[in-house]
Amino acid sequence: MKVQIEDVTVYFPYDNIYPEQYAYMVELKRALDAKGHCLLEMPTGTGKTIALLSLITSYTLSKPQSPVKLIYCTRTVHEMEKTLAELKLLHNYQVKNLGLAARILAIGLSSRKNLCINQRVLAAENRDSVDAACRKLTASWVRSKAAENSNVRTCEFFENYERAASGALLPPGVYTLQDLREFGKQNGWCPYFLSRHMVQFANVVVYNYQYLLDPKVAGIISKEMQKESVVVFDEAHNIDNVCIEALSVSVRRQTLDGASRNLTRMQQEIERFKATDASRLRAEYNRLVEGLALRGDLPASDSWLANPALPDDILKEAVPGNIRRAEHFLHVLHRLVHYLKGRLDTENVEKESPVSFVASVNSHAGIDQKTLKFCYDRLHSLMLTLEITDTDEFLHIQTICDFATLVGTYARGFSIIIEPFDERMPHIPDPVLQLSCHDASLAIKPVIDRFQSVVITSGTLSPIDLYPRLLNFHPVVSRSFTMSLTRDCICPMVLTRGSDQLPVSTKFDMRSDPGVARNYGKLLVEMVSVVPDGIVCFFVSYSYMDDIINHWNQHDILKEIMQHKLVFIETQDVVETTLALDNYRKACDCGRGAVFFSVARGKVAEGIDFDQHYGRLVIMFGVPFQYTLSKILLARLEYLRDTFQIKEGDFLTFDALRQAAQCVGRVIRSKADYGMMIFADKRYSRHDKRSKLPSWILSHLRDAHLNLSTDMALYIAREFLRKMAQPYDKTGGSGGRKTLLSQEDLEKMGDNILQGMVY
Amino acid sequence: MNNGGKRRLRENGDRGDDDDDDMEEDGLEAWERTYADERSWEALQEDESGFLRPIDNKAVHHAQYRRRLQSLSATARIQKGLIRFLFVVVDLSKAAAEMDYRPSRMVMIAKQVEAFIREFFDQNPLSQIGLVTIKDGVAHSLTELGGSPESHIKALMGKLECSGDGSLQNALELVQGYLDQIPSYGHREVLILYSALSTCDPGDIMQTIQKCKKSKIRCSVIGLSAEMYICKHLCQETGGSYSIALDEAHLKDLILEHAPPPPAIAEFAVANLIKMGFPQRAAEGSISICSCHKEAKIGEGYICPRCKARVCELPTECRVCGLTLVSSPHLARSYHHLFPIAPFDEVPPSRQFEPHHRLQKTCFGCQQSLRNPSNKFSLYVECPKCKQPFCLDCDIYIHESLHNCPGCESFRPS
């Protein structure tokens, strides 16, 4: 259908549209018009992605004089594929309506692991070794060697791609990763390098957050994106954490040992080169004297490291004299590693600012700040000179240089924390030195500054006013949309008391109380007998989950649960968890019924959907606060308070509640779905906690459901499940609120739709 | 009358002798009942003048009824299976002991099944029913396929106790074994009344479902508490219907929905000639040996036209020569399923003020006034053919029991 939004005709590939999608597009369009950034919250299952894609592509089509490029960032490869599939549908529709003029080029960009088609390279098991295996075949020196000696192996796909040179182009269309691989196989071109090359010409690029936020990667991939781009961060409720992680480094003893090994090996290499090909080292020295302007003219296949600091912060100057010579640089690194080893041997927890850390490095190891800052680039250059291809072996020394450069570059927003052991296991020495970034706005700042519009969107962005403060930018539009439903298909409840009317909570002083564990157990036992198929339970942490399952096991509660449903548990092992999930699904499918125990902030809570019968009920046991005694968290809280005036309590509650919302949001993925959500903790009934839940949950949280005990919740659950099992009219019927609009409806209703959709 | 009926009556109005009513209903004092079971205050609403009144559910119920009728009439003109072989599977796992229906799910189900069996034979005199129970993870055949309502009801009432888990797969396997032997003109159906929320199966239930699909067994499930994926899947695959009961009255409606014959499955829709006998009633006072009870009986029986054996009830299959024995009214009763009367049209409120309509103030069926006490027209319907108005009660009566429109019948072309 075609929708007219102000001066833009939006081509929407479906015959009907949800009112909230329309409202979403209107807001988005206004943000694009204003060339500003925006924050949009809309519940999952309402077709956010297609609304976004339709509007932005149509916007470009209607304004051919100033084309906008769309950069769409997703969290996982799976989401990327989904997005591209939707885009393909939309593209076909647009081409059908507008003819060939509407053709665009849209590609997904991912790591070699997902794009490579060379069987020998793909045999490697993880991402780093695939990268290394690829480099072994495609590095410029390997290829020049191969030109002389036919026994040296190269990658035929890459060779073909290089031979085709500028002729290697993708015809317009939408390419998923699968399509890219197919195309590569057909033409014999390497899909990875082809897509890397095509990024500059594509109208739509879909890739991972890291490619834009992590300066190490962004420097290579994203630096050529033009300013007139719209950047979309989908599922961006955790964007601040992604930003922080991109700039944080942790160093353990293994890292340091590995780094020492790396250094020894590099030493040998240097000796070898001195004996055979001393001119290379001299050439490198000369290049360094002239400055670091080397990255521009490197062949694409060789650029694999970029500075971890942000582009603006790298000085355009020559490498300091004391590390220009390879062996001198190695000495510096030796001293640095040695110094860090010494620091790790501490007995106490230490916290330091980068400034004092740099001062101490200077006095103890004789390395000044400027030298530190150049470590990463110098290492990069050295490794290229030494023609090292098995880069996965050298991760340790890279981590060290990464650390050094960040410490040398930033004086604010970071702190260095050395912990001799894990707080929770004080008897096992496991020293770790962490450089943690506290300021999420650092990593996102270049993106915000550089691009015309940045759209941050997710199902849970509440409270929506906190994100601009955390990320330090000014959105022109920030809105939260409701979900228009034909029936009340979500049923959130706050359970404050157990069956014996005593309060339940995972508060620190109550959590070890056996009464609470028993009450939680009783709740689950009762629920498994009334809820069909799948139930998902989220606990606040692995250790709490272990405790409570132990307790339930001792008191036969687990056995009672098993009479009704099978029990599956998430563990820290990915393979084990995947297997558990698989069997959980099977048990739900065949009617046996199953319960899945999982942890908030875990992999399952973030990425796995429990839609339809896989999740009829989700129970959130407790409020998933972060581990508040963690030194890193404390340091970050302090920084947030001092810099952004965000109170500690506010931030902790916000963070806990967004995790809780994320967990319970797993069960409802579309409008035809239904599910219940139980927040089992007395603290949820307090206004300051509850009000931070996303508005689409809050609007269904009736006052009567705010202070329930187990038996009341049980009754409500029974009634809800009966009601939801009844047949219903999917379009919302003729009268009352319409939830599915056709083109006619839209034209008739005009702007009235907007009211009521926005909070 | 049962509890549900009574409750429904109260919702619909007249709350006059409410109090004594409640007392005898469950034998419980008001304070003994948990608030959970009877949220009586929820059945109240405030009217314009601030008085509390019971919610008028009539329009809502009628809307539901109409929706059902519409969906049925959509399939009205297609061939229907009049000779049905239906297995009723009653879940007697421990979930059936739950008390959310009074006095327990099990007893209530038994009661409804009894009503269903009678209604079923009333509407499908040529069909047969068998009973199966699920208990302790296994399925038992309670009665074999037969045409006598009494024997089924007796067998069911005698076996009302529950334990263990339910197993859908075992029940399906058992039923499939029986139904596979049915001749091809018969329609194979299973109606499962499932209390439990899980099924403990010995093998892969998906294969069993495919097997049922292959032998063209139409499986329908009525759940008592919540929607289960596997049941939904089963019904979708085999072309049955899946529904969940809200309360006792709703359950009754749902069960009785299965009484009229379902549309015939396309592959079966070949016309077949079936040999049938129309036995004569035995003379009063004549003594003969009954072939079904194996004892001498006086009068009150039917004589098979082919082998002259005596049977007690019709319809049945002759024990001696295997001929299907029916009476002609039975055939006639099955007939209306093929030619149902069209659903009546609802009269929109706007049209009620047209002068033409102002004249007719009474229902053509019962002659009651169509105005409610506040002198406004309440909702009413009219026949699309004869354009006579009918009240909602008559609408239901005409479609469900009478199967004739009084307006059209009394209309004679001059």
From TrEMBL, chain A:
It catalyses: ATP + H2O = ADP + phosphate + H(+). It is found in: Nucleus. InterPro entries: ATP-dep_Helicase_C (IPR006555), DinG/Rad3-like (IPR045028), DNA/RNA_helicase_DEAH_CS (IPR002464), HBB (IPR010643), Helic_SF1/SF2_ATP-bd_DinG/Rad3 (IPR014013), Helicase-like_DEXD_c2 (IPR006554), P-loop_NTPase (IPR027417), RAD3-like_helicase_DEAD (IPR010614). Keywords: 4Fe-4S, ATP-binding, DNA damage, DNA repair, DNA-binding, Helicase, Hydrolase, Iron, Iron-sulfur, Isomerase, Metal-binding, Nucleotide-binding, Nucleus. The keyword ATP-binding applies. Residues 7-285 form the Helicase ATP-binding domain. Its cofactor is [4Fe-4S] cluster. Belongs to the helicase family. RAD3/XPD subfamily. This is DNA 5'-3' helicase. The lineage of its organism: Eukaryota, Viridiplantae, Streptophyta, Embryophyta, Tracheophyta.
UniProtKB/TrEMBL annotation, chain B:
GO terms for biological process: DNA-templated transcription; nucleotide-excision repair; regulation of transcription by RNA polymerase II. This is General transcription factor IIH subunit. PANTHER family: GENERAL TRANSCRIPTION FACTOR IIH SUBUNIT 2, GENERAL TRANSCRIPTION FACTOR IIH SUBUNIT 2-RELATED. It comes from Rhizophora mucronata. It is found in: Nucleus. GO terms for cellular component: transcription factor TFIIH core complex; transcription factor TFIIH holo complex. Residues 383-403 form the C2H2-type domain. InterPro entries: C1-like_sf, Ssl1-like, TFIIH_C1-like_dom, TFIIH_SSL1/p44, VWF_A, vWFA_dom_sf, Znf_C2H2_type, Znf_RING/FYVE/PHD.
